[in-house]
């Protein structure tokens, strides 16, 4: 990189391409549910306002609550929108999805169905997002912030540009990266290894979820069916409550493996030193 490109002001200018219109701000928490305007909902789901309206017209997305002339959506709508998007990505048509949802909702309470969708599509350790501006990012990481590194961080979802500020969905990951960087690990290397770790975590999550579905759904309904009756809200509640349990298992197991790996590396290094001493 040219020396002029390492100038903080030059880097800051190069990052402006990540900014979005100022009106696209993060939705605020409201009571038990997050609330969104239609623009915010589309942005959060990675969809478009046109799609949201089309899904409503086809009856596969519940209508918003009307407050004056403004439609207010919640995380319930976000969950349904994510599921619609995932089914479309698998090649299903809107008609397929409408038929599937109609069959799914027959004989079941709609609130239970939507509650399960919310639990499934937000199955993660709760993390309160924080915000910073571009200059804060430069202050934290200095010359390690380049357009290439910024692109990688955005693709991984650890930094989300919103207007003239940046949203950090997972502040703990950001702070961990900052501390590693200050210790001498290049930010690009941190992001590269995080992306590799994510693949392993994906496999771990699939095993964990597979265990839950096997024992709570498959054994009772078969491996090609959905839960019914009171099992629907029961499954949603269990998925919500199991988050800290999964977090505890993964955290303790990771700690055990880290301790084992660190000790192995230390002992290997000491053995090498001893071997050199003995050779003298």
From TrEMBL:
Segments forming domain HTH merR-type: 35-103
Matching Gene3D superfamilies, A to Z? Answer: 1.10.1660.10
What InterPro entries does this protein's entry cite?
DNA-bd_dom_put_sf, MerR-type_HTH_dom, MerR_fam
An example Gene Ontology molecular-function term: DNA-binding transcription factor activity
DNA-binding: present as a keyword of the record? Answer: yes
Which controlled-vocabulary keywords does the entry list?
Answer: DNA-binding
Query: What is this protein's name?
Result: HTH merR-type domain-containing protein
